TrEMBL record, chain A:
<dbReference type="GO" id="GO:0005886">
    <property type="term" value="C:plasma membrane"/>
</dbReference>
<feature type="transmembrane region" description="Helical">
    <location>
        <begin position="161"/>
        <end position="188"/>
    </location>
</feature>
<feature type="transmembrane region" description="Helical">
    <location>
        <begin position="255"/>
        <end position="271"/>
    </location>
</feature>
<feature type="transmembrane region" description="Helical">
    <location>
        <begin position="283"/>
        <end position="304"/>
    </location>
</feature>
<keyword id="KW-0406">Ion transport</keyword>
<feature type="transmembrane region" description="Helical">
    <location>
        <begin position="108"/>
        <end position="131"/>
    </location>
</feature>
<keyword id="KW-0739">Sodium transport</keyword>
<feature type="transmembrane region" description="Helical">
    <location>
        <begin position="209"/>
        <end position="235"/>
    </location>
</feature>
<feature type="transmembrane region" description="Helical">
    <location>
        <begin position="43"/>
        <end position="63"/>
    </location>
</feature>
UniProtKB/TrEMBL annotation, chain B:
<keyword id="KW-0472">Membrane</keyword>
<keyword id="KW-1133">Transmembrane helix</keyword>
<keyword id="KW-0812">Transmembrane</keyword>
<feature type="transmembrane region" description="Helical">
    <location>
        <begin position="45"/>
        <end position="70"/>
    </location>
</feature>
<protein>
    <submittedName>
        <fullName>Uncharacterized protein</fullName>
    </submittedName>
</protein>
Length: 375, 119
């Protein structure tokens, strides 16, 4: 009988805390959002399930959780904590990305730079709220709207905040269709939303092959901290564009990115143990994350309007919001908001230019912040 | 005085083996007296913000300029650039190709059947 009672004390029912229950509810919410609302299901579903797994109480003497040395989950989490998974995801993103629209209209690259204002203004906000500079930098990168970049920088600068930052980044990425449209409508007039842009020109194969090599050299020379992210992004793109490594490109954009996404999502979710996650700091990070997305969107739209003061071929300022590098969701949102005014205005291909430029911009910003903080 | 307030909280957390390093850092952060503009100034937040924004703009402006110049560069280098043949550009198999392939398969099948019938 004693054995039975001892065993019962080791069960999850006995050790469950209100915090664990709350986190399991959040995990279930993520799974529901993924399945019912189709919000970023590839990410929210593994993160949600991981959250449930990470909040099942276990015995202290058993190595089960991500923070227990030698546990299976700790080995999976190693790819997150050491920043291994994000560059692998970037390899897949590179192998999926078509830079043609950006190559055909290079001025749209600047919108991707403008949207990174969200990162640096959020950094100021985080400092003002009492976070250390390293923590503030890791929180600010949420404004880059790039989950892998946020995880990469958080693992380097503020590993103790990694769970909260990753969850905030991916949650807001999933909520891009909810957060961005009101800001875009608020900052633009109907006349601006109706602007039709010239169709992009045809880009030659030489251009598409040379760009990843030159783009990497430029970024890595300016911000060496972004080396692993940018390097893998452009390697993936070169694999795709060269067409001589089609098998590798296919693996990178299909099997590999899927495997890494599962491992990353699940282990990030499993790292949200209530004792580590349910803190005042996490709430502040969520607040700052929402602000950073709003600032990034506004900065992109306003910069497009500023550019229009000097351009003869006007830019539809809605595509400025696509500088937030949530690929391709923010580009889709620009298309959706534009089509509400003019159903025949196809903004998606134009919006992809700032969108992919935003990916490069946020990786460079992460590299800069890393260099500044450790330098 | 601030340092005095900070040190015991750090040592308390460090002395407890069950407390993680994360909690120690959190304790330091929460014990930090600096908030608002004071904190931004102490960490040189404006400097980081301006420097970071400028570097991102410089990097993407350089990329933008390179992209704008690329067609002119390629036009100038045109005579020296090698022709690039895409693996996707390979001609589709012709009717004669497919009949040759069929013949090859047929020959292989016949050879295999004869091999099986050997005593």
């Amino acid at each position: 009988m004693d054995i039975l009672f001892d065993f019962l004390k080791t069960t999850g029912f006995y050790q469950m805390t209100p915090g664990n229950l709350a986190m399991i509810a959040i995990g279930l919410l993520f799974i529901a959002l993924a399945i019912i609302k189709d919000y970023e299901p590839l990410l929210l579903l593994p993160i949600g399930f991981g959250t449930i797994v990470g909040n099942i109480p276990s015995i202290e003497s058993m190595a089960l959780g991500v923070y227990d040395q030698g546990s299976v989950l700790s080995y999976l989490y190693f790819g997150v904590s050491q920043g291994i998974f994000p560059p692998l995801i970037f390899l897949g993103i590179g192998a999926m990305t078509d830079f043609s629209t950006m190559l055909s209209n290079p001025k749209l690259v600047m919108l991707g730079a403008a949207a990174q204002a969200g990162i640096f203004l959020t950094l100021l906000g985080a400092l003002a709220m009492g976070f250390s500079p390293e923590e503030a930098a890791a929180i600010g990168i949420i404004g880059g709207a790039d989950g892998p970049t946020a995880i990469f920088l958080a693992s380097k600068l503020a590993p103790h905040l990694l769970g909260a930052i990753a969850i905030a980044a991916y949650s807001y990425m999933a909520l891009v269709p909810v957060i961005q449209p009101p800001i875009m409508r608020l900052l633009t007039t109907r006349k601006e939303r109706l602007i039709r842009m010239k169709p992009p020109r045809q880009v030659t194969r030489h251009e598409r092959i040379l760009f990843p090599i030159a783009g990497f050299l430029i970024c890595a020379m300016i911000a060496p901290g972004s080396l692993s992210l940018i390097g893998m992004l452009f390697l993936g793109n070169l694999l795709k564009e060269s067409t001589v490594t089609e098998r590798l490109a296919n693996t990178a954009r299909n099997a590999m990115i899927d495997i890494v996404t599962i491992l990353l999502g699940f282990s990030v979710g499993a790292s949200t143990d209530a004792q580590q996650f349910l803190t005042r700091q996490s709430l502040m990070i969520f607040g700052l994350g929402a602000a950073s997305f709003a600032i990034a969107t506004a900065a992109g739209v306003l910069f497009a309007k500023l550019m229009n003061l000097f351009l003869t071929d006007k830019i539809n300022p809605l595509i400025g919001a696509a500088g937030v590098s949530a690929v391709p969701d923010s580009a889709r949102v620009a298309q959706m908001v534009g089509q509400k005014e003019d159903p025949h205005n196809l903004l998606l291909m134009h919006a992809m230019a700032p969108n992919v430029a935003g990916v490069i911009g946020s990786a460079v910003a992460a590299g800069v912040l890393w260099s500044v903080m450790v330098g | 005085m601030y340092l005095y307030a900070l040190i015991p909280s750090v040592f308390e957390t460090v002395s407890d083996p069950a407390t993680s390093a994360a909690a120690t850092i959190a304790a330091v952060a929460s014990a930090s007296p600096l908030r608002g503009w004071e904190a931004i100034r102490a960490a040189d937040g404006i400097g980081i913000c301006v420097t970071g924004t400028v570097i991102v703009f410089v990097a993407l402006t350089a990329i933008s300029l390179f992209i704008a110049l690329l067609p002119h560069l390629l036009a100038a280098l045109g005579p020296w650039l090698p022709e690039i043949h895409s693996h996707h550009d390979q001609p589709l198999p012709t009717a004669s190709d497919s009949s040759a392939e069929q013949t090859r398969r047929l020959a292989a099948t016949v050879a295999w059947a004869r091999h099986q019938q050997r005593p």
